[in-house]
Amino acid sequence: MLPVVSIVGRPNVGKSTIFNRLIGSRKAIVDDEYGVTRDRHYGESFWNGRRFNVIDTGGYLPDATDVVVEGIREQVHIAIAESDVILFVVDTEGGITSLDKAVAELLRKQDKPVLLVPNKADNDERTLNATEFYELGFEELYPISAVNGRGTGDLLDELVSRL
Ligand code: GDP
Ligand code: MG
């Protein structure tokens, strides 16, 4: 069994874009047997000679806030149970939201390694702004741009060192 990396976070922060960058041209497996809130995509990735499976969570959450919160909670609990490392994605464009804080609280209460990933850090300014996410209570953060690849090498170096 390959180690498992889950990507969690509120809708629209770029989880699926990160997932697609990590699996590249390899094909994702879609598992929707548990229904919409548990819909997950699985794919294989590698970096520095280490192979691992990546899970993209929460693809099709309905657009009602309480349902989103419940769906994310459920995804985070599953991710905690079955992952070796969790990527907690936030958005440097949108800033910190109450949903980010709710996810952070769930993730801080457990022992799996969590890498806080402020995404959409497409340029220097956004990368500097990413420091606001220290407020979420994690020691390190790894700003990236899933679109242009900025920062992804450093994130992946750290990720495989935790597998
Ligand atoms: P998800 O809901 O968390 O899976 O988010 P998606 O991957 O679907 O992305 C949501 C939106 O953010 C899309 O319009 C993406 O193109 C955009 N996005 C994702 N990553 C980046 C990034 O690194 N930079 C910018 N500028 N936009 C991004
Ligand atoms: Mg998605």
From TrEMBL:
Location of this fragment in the whole protein: 1 to 163 of 435
Chain sites annotated for binding GTP 1: 9-16, 56-60, 119-122
Highest taxon, organism lineage: Bacteria
Subunit structure: Associates with the 50S ribosomal subunit.
Name used for this protein in its record: GTPase Der
Family: Belongs to the TRAFAC class TrmE-Era-EngA-EngB-Septin-like GTPase superfamily. EngA (Der) GTPase family.
Domain EngA-type G: 3-163
Protein purpose: GTPase that plays an essential role in the late steps of ribosome biogenesis.
Gene behind this protein: der
Organism: Fodinibius roseus
